[in-house]
Design brief:
The structure holds two protein chains of two kinds. Chain A contains 22 helices and 20 strands. By secondary structure, chain A is α/β, with parallel strands linked by helices. The longest helix of chain A has 18 residues. The two termini of chain A are 33 Å apart. In chain A, 47% of the residues are buried. Chain B is mostly helical. Chain B has 14 helices and three strands. In chain B, strands 2-1-3 form a three-stranded antiparallel sheet, with no helix packed on it. In chain B, β1 and β2 form a beta hairpin. Classes of the chains: A alpha/beta, B mainly alpha. The interface between A and B is large, with 53 and 33 residues.
């Protein structure tokens, strides 16, 4: 079979520094190839630079599309190829669609441009295309603006737009990453169907090995700008040749928890009828006098025993992060919420809130916004001591900061930790920053740690390490976790009990093995299936 | 206890704080950096204006005794004159007395003060540049170079003071609005809209009619209206930064609002403040100059660039007045603009090191 696209010795650099060091691969017509790697491996840059869609990049090598070299083409010739023979789907459909035009008009524009249809024909054809992507009521949706569609519908519209010109090759750059878990499978199935119908080749760029297994026939693994392994999906998954591939495949989080006997003493955290609501503006004249109310968490009950992890799972907008902020006492709430037997409301009234804050600490999702860029490591990690143990001398504080850094595995030998203290967060990688955030929380010896998607922004291999660290800390210190995530595999590895949230309500709860093995609620079932 | 993740030990090179890195980037901009140096030299020199340009000699040695006319007043009788009044050291008679024989006197490089009227000038005022008055004199016979030196000093000090008060008020009000948000923000925003709608110039005219004009009054009046632009920027930065996870973490840690503002939000919100400093300063200098030009500024007799410009307008044929004042203003404002540009580039987050 002759290759549709043949890439030879592709190099991409920015300002003299190479990020892709000469890679070779080919895609046959109608083939599904997955390009896999962690962030910074150069996978997106490699694929998008084929169409010169990367700004300020120096690209060399050759990329033969049916014998014509894309990299030697003039900008004018390349415009004929883009969106015609080769189409692209981006990660974030909200920013990839123009908010000022209707979806139908944007698809119609491609049809008029590439197929020479009249506006009327283009309109009819765009409705047809939308229908083929499984959007309900396609004629009405064609008249909708991007913001009026849901995330999944927007991505379907993007796919319809990419298919408008019947491309031979589709570059799909993380097409499902911005979507909720239950939608990912649907979008992927849609891509599979359309790929078969149109007989086009698809280059799927992703970091998610589950998607690769479900979708691709061949896989190419990239590490730091080099292609380390290529092969059939079945072969690579069962018998990886390169150490890095093996490491990637083995990076599924592992369960390594101390099993705690049920109900060991008083719960660390106990909530009854916890409800959080936001004021929202009411449209019209009435809004001048009254505010509406949006209930983000509707009457949740939960208990966390010492040394245990309660996992909260749900999609974006399900209220799980709001729940975390309420538990931390950062949002006003109704209902009762007790931390180690002390009621939040009562503690506030009697001025004991500060003592309560010492018992419950937090680690957030985004490693880049969770550390102030203008403070040193010593200032960031030692801050809790300033607040809760003001009698500590500077030397004692420094010693405890170093001990905390050693605890989270940033420093091997506590005697050598001082080199880290005067550094600023910008010098650390995502995983290291997340460890710093954990150290900052641990230094005041909390009993409960609220973990709000602590590993979602990390690469899979780093995620595995951070999860292992959290498990070790729990075993050693008997910490309780409130672990919030959208990832079923992470919950499976980390939680003792699990709570499933949807639209602000708790729809299912129980021991983790039981809930994940035999989900009762249909929504839980889709979540669990999507993760397999 | 090392996990497989134990990261590489940090390199030995010292870690630079974000502000130090911005300073490094600023230094790399030659134009801006040299502008800063030249501006600083000029400001420091103008602070010593009394030594550089004064109608009193720095030291006088007269008949075996040493006098310091710069700091002390001496009647003319001390140097053999007839009157009990203060000595006029520009008087050719006195000049001769204190320089004959063993007597000597060290005059300032430019032997005129800002208010000195040269009664012994050889040409009518305004006089074109001569060997005695290097830049000429104005229409009242005062030395132009002395006027420029003292005028520059007044302008720069006024600019610094106005920038300082404006920044202080702007940061405080912006921080309050942005950090507390909600109703506080709403109320403050409406107040700013009302306050900003007041006709500043008319108020200045009215106040200069009611009160005796002085630099202090001018500073207060201009400060009252000069903080609003900056306040909006600081407010926006605070609104953005208070949502950051590190602020939430600090709250969860139990820090008070004051501590959170001081340690976390404020240092991360100062970029627009620093970027605008030179531009605010040049705006302040320009404001003072134009008010002086209109006669609404500093009290009469105070050396001022604006007053000189208006003299230049009234004496079009005395080109040296308008040209030299114009040059001083342009150079000052250019230096400030170059500094501002360099500062803006140095603090631009989109620009990388190297």
């Amino acid at each position: 079979m002759r290759a549709l696209l043949e890439v030879r010795n592709l190099r991409v650099g920015f300002g003299g520094q190479d990020v892709v060091h000469g890679i070779d691969f080919e895609i046959a017509a109608g083939e599904r190839l997955a390009l896999v790697g962690e962030s910074g491996s150069g996978k997106s840059v490699s694929a998008l630079s084929l169409l010169r869609l990367v700004q300020n990049a120096d690209v060399s090598g050759s990329a033969l599309l049916e014998g014509r070299d894309l990299l030697q083409m003039s900008e004018r010739q390349l415009r004929g190829v883009r969106g015609d023979e080769v189409a692209v789907i981006f990660q974030e459909p909200m920013t990839a669609l123009n908010p000022l035009y209707t979806v139908g008009a944007q698809i119609g524009e491609v049809l008029q441009l590439k197929k020479g249809l009249t506006p009327r024909q283009a309109q009819a054809a765009s409705v047809e295309l939308l229908a083929s992507t499984g959007i309900p009521e396609p004629a009405r949706r064609a008249q909708a603006y991007p913001h009026q569609l849901s995330g999944g519908q927007r991505q379907r519209a993007m796919i319809a737009m990419a298919l408008a010109s019947a491309p031979k090759l589709l570059l799909a750059d993380e097409p499902t990453t911005a979507l909720d878990v239950s939608l990912r499978g649907q979008i992927l199935d849609l891509l599979s169907d359309l790929q078969r119908q149109h007989g086009m080749a698809v280059l799927l760029i992703t970091h998610d090995l589950n998607l690769v297994r479900r979708f691709a026939s061949r896989i190419a693994v990239m590490e730091r700008g080099r292609l380390v392994e290529t092969g059939d999906v079945a072969r690579v998954f069962t018998d990886p040749q390169h150490a890095y591939t093996a490491k990637l495949l083995a990076s599924k989080p592992e369960r390594d928890l101390a099993e705690v006997p049920p109900v060991a003493g008083e719960p660390v955290l106990s909530a009854r009828g916890l409800q959080v609501s936001y004021p929202v503006p009411v449209p019209g004249l009435r809004g001048w006098f009254k505010k509406g109310e949006f209930v983000a968490v509707q009457g949740a009950d939960l208990d966390i025993a010492p040394g245990q992890t309660l996992g909260v799972i749900g999609e974006s907008g399900s209220g799980k992060s709001t729940l975390a902020l309420a538990v931390l006492g950062l949002l006003p709430f109704q209902g009762s919420l007790q931390v180690a037997g002390t009621d939040w409301h009562a503690a506030r009234r009697s001025g004991q809130a500060k003592a309560l804050r010492q018992r419950i600490q937090v680690v957030f999702q985004d490693p880049f916004s969770s550390l102030s860029p203008r403070l040193t490591v010593e200032q960031i990690v030692g801050e809790g001591l300033l607040v809760h143990q003001p009698h500590c001398t500077a030397d004692e504080r420094r010693g405890r900061v170093i001990a905390a850094l050693a605890d989270v595995g940033l420093v091997d030998d506590p005697g050598q930790g001082s080199g880290w203290l005067q550094r600023y967060p910008h010098e650390f990688s995502g995983g290291q920053r997340q460890r710093l955030a954990i150290a900052r929380a641990l230094i005041v010896n909390p009993e409960l740690l609220v973990l709000d998607e602590p590993t979602s922004a990390l690469d899979v291999t780093v995620q595995k390490q951070v999860l292992a660290l959290l498990q070790r800390l729990q075993r050693e210190r008997g910490l309780s976790y409130l672990f919030i995530t959208h990832d079923v595999n992470v919950i499976r590895a980390m939680a003792h009990e699990v709570l499933v949230m949807k639209d602000g309500a708790v729809i299912e709860r129980g021991a983790v093995e039981q809930v994940l093995a035999a989900p009762q609620h249909p929504y839980t079932r889709t979540l669990v299936q999507a993760a397999v | 206890m090392s996990t497989p993740a134990a990261p590489a030990a940090p390199s030995l090179s010292p870690s630079l704080s974000p502000s130090r890195r911005a300073w490094q980037r600023f230094k790399r901009n030659r134009l801006g950096f040299w502008s800063l140096i030249i501006f600083c030299v000029l400001v420091v020199a103008s602070l010593f204006a009394d030594v550089l340009s004064s109608d009193r000699p720095l030291v006088v040695r007269y008949e075996g005794q040493t006098y310091f006319p710069l700091v002390n007043d001496y009647p003319e009788t001390v140097f053999g004159g007839d009157f009990e009044s203060n000595t006029d050291f520009l008087d050719p008679f006195i000049r001769e007395r204190i320089t004959v024989g063993d007597n000597w006197a060290v005059y300032a490089p430019n032997p005129y003060g800002p208010k000195t009227l040269n009664y012994f000038a050889k040409s009518p005022h305004p006089s074109a540049p001569t060997a005695e008055n290097w830049f000429g004199t104005d229409d009242r016979g005062r030395d132009l170079l002395a006027q420029l030196i003292y005028g520059f000093r007044v302008s720069v000090l006024f600019g610094l003071a106005l920038t300082f008060t404006g920044v202080l008020l702007g940061v405080i009000t912006g921080a309050i609005q942005g950090f507390f948000g909600g109703k506080t923000d709403l109320a403050f925003q409406r107040f700013i809209e009302v306050w900003g709608a007041m006709p500043e110039l008319y108020l200045l005219i009215i106040f200069s009619a009611v009160f005796a004009p002085s630099i202090g009054l001018l500073l207060v009046l201009l400060s009252l209206f000069g903080w609003m632009g900056l306040s909006d920027y600081v407010r926006a930065e605070f609104l953005r930064n208070r949502q950051m996870d590190y602020v939430r973490s600090a709250r969860a840690m139990g820090l008070s609002n004051g501590q959170i503002i001081w340690r976390h939000v404020l240092p991360n919100s100062l970029t627009p403040v620093v970027t605008f400093l030179p531009f605010r300063m040049s705006a302040a200098i320009l404001a003072l100059t134009s008010l002086d030009f209109l006669g609404l500024g500093v009290p009469p007799g105070t050396p001022s660039l604006g007053e000189l410009l208006s003299q230049g307008k009234n004496n079009i044929d005395a080109w040296w007045i308008s040209m030299s004042t114009f040059a001083v203003l342009v150079i000052t404002l250019l230096l400030l603009t170059f500094m501002g540009d360099a500062l803006r580039d140095a603090l631009d987050p989109r620009k990388q090191d190297k």
